Amino acid sequence: MLIEKRLSWTMFNRIAPTYDRANRWLSFGIDRYWRKRLVAQIPHKVGQTIVDLGTGTGDVLVALARRFRDRHLIGIDPAEDMLNLATPKVAKWGPQVQLKVGSADDIPLDACSVDALTMAFAIRNVPDVPRALQEMYRIMKPGGTACILEFSIPTNLLIKRLYLFYFRRIIPVFGGLISGDRAAYQYLNVSVEAFPYGQEFAELMKKAGFSEVTVISMTCGIASIYIGKR
Fold first, then answer.
1. pLDDT in tens for each of the 230 residues of the chain?
2. Which overall architecture, per CATH, does domain 29-152+196-229 show?
3. Is there a smaller number of Cβ atoms within 10 Å at the N or the C end of the chain?
4. How far apart (Å, rounded) are the C-alpha atoms in residues 104 and 135?
5. Closest C-alpha among 26, 5, 97, 27 to residue 58
């Protein structure tokens, strides 16, 4: 069964209870390192507002709260069940951190209202990626920074073959066992392989208006961070 992008939020609602555990097991814990690298790209500015799109269960939002203790942080996701799991994680930071239901291609924030944004492993699930990038550009203040973390495909042929075998054969089986929803983890490899990465995605950011777009390749090209300036 193939899951439509526009309905992917319903899939994330289904797998929400096991989402964090599956991430740790299937990535061998490397996803924590990737998210830490993502947050490290956001510059420190006094009194800034930072939004995390596709915040899910709030892992990036928590990392942001730890790094930027006196900042206004907003986590946005279309899957309410994921946000319900994020709520207790961010509760200790009080009103500094807010959670909102919303999608990246129709962000419920005013124009030029945020200083920086992050998005981890969620841009490929957005039905209209160019529109989402335009929305990101719209809500950011001049001089702001956008940092997007997403899976990519390794260029080394041997690593690429091993990576695709793991994504196509292993992840659906073990992801299905952990979550009880094999279709969700079949969607994972399909969405990753179909998504533009590297310079192709960097060009999409430039077309949306972002400048100084750079790409940081991590773990032999398995994941990449895309950084753009408003």
1. 344 555 565 777 787 788 788 878 888 889 999 999 999 999 988 889 999 999 999 999 999 999 998 889 999 999 999 999 999 999 999 889 999 999 999 999 999 999 999 999 999 999 899 999 999 999 999 999 999 999 999 999 999 999 999 988 998 888 888 888 888 778 777 888 899 999 999 999 999 999 999 999 999 999 999 999 99
2. 3-Layer(aba) Sandwich (3.40)
3. N
4. 7
5. 97
